[in-house]
Amino acid sequence: MTQPCATEIRLASRPQGEPTLNNFETAAVDLPELQPGEVLVRNTFFSVDPYMRGRMNDSKSYVAPFAVGKALDGAAVGQVVQSRHPGFLPSTWVASLCGWRDYFVAPAQNLRIIDATQAPASAYLGVLGAPGLTAWVGLHDILKLRSGETIFVSGAAGAVGSVVCQMAKILGCRVIASAGSAAKIAFLRNQLHVDSAFNYREANIEQELREAAPDGLHAYFDNTAGPQLEAALGRMRNHGRIALCGAITGYNTPVPGPRNLGLAIGRRLRLQGFLVVDYLHRMQPFLEETIPMVRAGKLLHQETIIEGLQHAPEAFISMLRSGDAHMGKMVVRV
Amino acid sequence: MTQPCATEIRLASRPQGEPTLNNFETAAVDLPELQPGEVLVRNTFFSVDPYMRGRMNDSKSYVAPFAVGKALDGAAVGQVVQSRHPGFLPSTWVASLCGWRDYFVAPAQNLRIIDATQAPASAYLGVLGAPGLTAWVGLHDILKLRSGETIFVSGAAGAVGSVVCQMAKILGCRVIASAGSAAKIAFLRNQLHVDSAFNYREANIEQELREAAPDGLHAYFDNTAGPQLEAALGRMRNHGRIALCGAITGYNTPVPGPRNLGLAIGRRLRLQGFLVVDYLHRMQPFLEETIPMVRAGKLLHQETIIEGLQHAPEAFISMLRSGDAHMGKMVVRV
A275 vs chain B: nearest CA distance in angstroms? Predict the structure, then answer.
């Protein structure tokens, strides 16, 4: 069996502000012969995520920056094509961190076998993948959300936010959700059945929160930072909790800090930043709880699929713009 | 025994920005006859504290605003003069929340007996009072500070900050302290023996923290908010903790929020606001631990005493200016 030639997408240059197609390039690479313990995987889907924007800057962060001239990476699911590891037979579905390419060779120990009979393989990039785990950890470990509480979720139509909304509803909470387009608001209302939803680009955010949460917010799941964080701070109840999960508003350009952070003293607020990478040990209990919900149709597996590896840069740029182009998890089908 | 006529200091008008003497007025009031269970107390010392500035605004907060035309209040210590409660004999030392006046009548149940043989009575307004408890709760309950860690303390020469510095040193931590004058810096270095101290008004705060904490900060005890909070955020280690205790920088005029709050995500920071009023149940264990430290001279009881009830407004204004005029706890001797 000969090795296929792989195609990968590289960072051609570091974006200044909003990325453009010129920041990406496509390259063909020869794959190495398999060594013992290695497998050759053909990706079926890979993920484009907001956090990747930060990695395109040359700045110190919790993950190393992408290198210019090298392939991008990120979550992917695919099937084993060739194997020199007895536990990974050909056709086995695996999740990896080797996205943005069609084929790759890797040590089997870097891969995680997924059960594609329980849910569509692409779901393991979304509701059953890192975004779903992020939502679950954020609600349970960080916010310690309890039934009957009121929670505000920004970026609520995205991969993480859409799972947060649904899990909070299942828990018996009142959910206020925001997103950036009319179509997303309709999705939040009609498909995720949140209690209240508004378009943060058009609404008076303070007023929306005041009307939707007259008694204040017990919790805020922050995917955006910026003006929504400031408005949420102003609406928090005493002893409220804020999960700092994402700051998509400031990924392309910096935004001012919340001028009312001082409210955190008198209201005894807790703001907690977190990263899902610290909670990978919770993947198994998370999947055990979540797969049945997906199978029962209680947890909508919403995704926007972009066809073709070569369109991944457009998908990524579009996701950061938070336009109408996608709902839920955005994945690229290779 | 006839009732003395009491003198009290009232809020004459709400300050706009920095308070002035015109915002205060002195008034004579007749005291009521004692009812059963009540005592008449002569105040010896009372406290002027930064949080009182917030109460001078007509805005909703964790404590009701001061009313215009009514007496101010706050922590005080004094001695019982007359009593209709068997547990409070004349001469008993008591702590109350009836400051800013010389005499008052109150139900004995609102008072707490203090042991003035163990420490000077005024210490129960500082290191053994709410400021000391604030420091202790902040270090133990909020920051969960551990031996060997590096902590930055802003407002470090103040009533709370000076206790934080000393307790952190006793715990075996590296302490970086900031204050607003050369005299305070000398006090921090020579009397509190912090590892590093700088004048935040003159220094490049980022550079000071970089040099004093090359490996970053495990914890930050924030008494100021503003630029020091922003600089501390930039220096926090992964999983760092920030206790939001005070925001004196913004008490008179609003300050911008920290533009780098987004760092809290990647570094998994926790920012926790707290109020000592939620921890009054910990006063007894706090005193049991702290009184011996004060008696042994391990915990310096630093205070600035202003003589005379009539000078309390000046003392308060001066404290907010954070000038050279005082170190540690500022108290007024009646």
Answer: 7
Examine the pLDDT at A251 and tell me if it is beyond 70. Answer: no
What mean pLDDT do residues A231-241 have? 98
State the span(s) of chain A assigned CATH 3.40.50.720.
130-277
Mean of pLDDT values over B190-211 = 97
Q: Which of A54, A257, A266 sits opposite B257 (nearest CB)?
A: A257
Burial status of residue A257 (CB atoms within 10 A of its CB: 0-12, 13-18, 19 or more) = buried
Q: Which residue of A has its CA nearest to B244?
A: A265
Dist. CA B51–CA B64, nearest whole Å: 12
State whether A268 and B274 contact (CB < 8 Å).
yes
Question: Is the distance from CB of B308 to CB of B333 less than 8 angstroms?
Answer: yes
With an 8 Å Cβ cutoff, are B61 and A266 in contact? Answer: yes
Chain A CB contacts of B249 under 8 Å are none
Check whether A132 has a pLDDT greater than 60. yes
Q: Tell me the fold of A5-123+302-333.
A: Quinone Oxidoreductase; Chain A, domain 1 (3.90.180)
Cα–Cα–Cα angle for B159, B164, B166, rounded to 5 degrees: 100
State the pTM of this model. 0.90
Quick one: pLDDT band at residue B1, thresholds 50, 70, 90? Answer: low
Q: Is A5 on the interface with B (CB under 8 A)?
A: no
Residue A231 tokens read as 């408005």
Rounded-to-integer distance, Cα A159 and Cα A10, Å: 24
Express each pLDDT in A46-96 by its tens digit. 999 888 998 999 887 777 899 999 999 999 999 999 999 999 999 999 999
Chain B residue with minimal CA distance to A254? B259
Which amino acid appears at position B46 of this protein?
A: F
Asked if the C-beta of B267 comes within 8 angstroms of chain A's C-beta atoms, the answer is yes
CB contact under 8 A, B54 and A266: yes
**B268 close to A (CB below 8 A):** yes
A272 close contact with B: CB closer than 8 A: yes
Query: Nearest 10 degrees: CA dihedral of A218, A220, A226, A231?
Result: -30
Selected residues 274-293 of chain B with any CB under 8 Å from a CB in chain A: 274-275, 278
On whether the A130-277 domain is CATH 3.40.50.720, my answer is yes
| Residue A197 predicted with pLDDT over 60 | yes
Query: Tokens representing B218?
Result: 């495990």
The CATH label, of 3.40.50.720, 3.40.50.2000, 3.10.150.10, 3.90.180.10, for the domain at B5-125+301-333 is 3.90.180.10
Task: Tell me which chain A residues have a C-beta less than 8 angstroms from the C-beta of B274.
Answer: 265, 268
